[in-house]
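subagent[fold] <- orchestrator: predict structure for attached chain, return tokens only, no commentary.
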Amino acid sequence: MNVRRTAAVLAAIAVLGGASAPAASAASPSPSAPPLPAALYGTADPTYDGVWRQSLALLAQHTVGVRPAVKAVDWLAGQQCANGAFAAYRADPKADCDAKTQVDTNSTAAAVQALAALGGHDAQTGKAVEWLKSVQNEDGGWGFTAGGASDTNSTSTVVGALAAVGAKPQETKSAKGHSPYDALTKLSLPCDGKDGGAFAYQPDKKGALAANADATAAGALAALGKGFVSGPGKTAGTPTCTDADTATAIAHNGTAYLAGALEKTPYLKSAMPGATSQPDYGNTADAVVALAAAGLSSAAEGPLAWLEKNAADWAEKSGPAGYAQLVFAAHATGTDPRAFGTVDLVDKLGATGPAPQSAGKTATDKVVSQTDSGNAVWWFVGVFLVAGIGIGFLLSGRNRKRQP
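subagent[fold] -> orchestrator:
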């Protein structure tokens, strides 16, 4: 299944009642289920990832200069609860959120990144960020749900949201005075041990850290202060792990670990149970983004070429989130997403949801929504691109692996 961050999705499933994820979430809704909203991207069951995949789809379209459909943006904004948080999916957004509404940091932070990029949603993103700050853990990080133990993937997704609204992650501190980077540093493996430089998702019950490639791609990008969309960084030298506890150092160490792992095979392997040695396309795309953002373009070349050759079928099965991840990887490396191997990622992504307003390759527009007495009033403010800026780009990816 297309899960951006496996551990996060499993956590969501546990919170929502321990449902059997692969069978329930990978399939299309049953004939007896309510019809999916016409504004929603993807046709798979959105229970665990509706907001996530919508956010990635809209952000990827914006990144490549496509102006999304108004109703698609409106649907995402309408998923927000009164307290500012987002749940993974609310079938009836007109109903008030209550104690049974399972809001989470990942859906909220992903929505912030998308709505902030689209523009015109300052009130919604501001409220969402305030909620995120209110549930920051004492160690400076975030768990999937409010009060949950901090994990690398959730913390990195929130860092991306903070950066998207112009907040400085290093200045976003808990009541104990800890920033997100303090939490990420504690989740980074020391250089003198096995898998030095990698990030763990969370410590185990004994406090030990185990390398997780998905968490490493997310953590490294966050330590660079980046969100889902990031351009290539300044060219760096040979990646090596060095002992230091600054954000820059742990980002460097994380990408050094990824570069080493990708020297063995041009793809990262799935951590899903029973998937030994199987490629993890989403995690590989996220690693390409992290490597490029860190200035390690040469290390990103091999996995990028592998994705161009092999990822088309995976993306088709994964749906909008999968296509978005590949768009982000293409942008991070200066690759044309409309000619990704033999695939036009932009057209493929667009086909998974409502037709966009425009399909320009370079112009970006802000989509603004206001509601007056229940009637949506829309207008659009075009903005000029700075000369020389290339097509837009991502994350995570933070590939928190979520359902399409």
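orchestrator: received. Logging for downstream: The first strand starts at residue 86 and ends at 87. The domain at 6-383 is CATH 1.50.10.20 (Glycosyltransferase).
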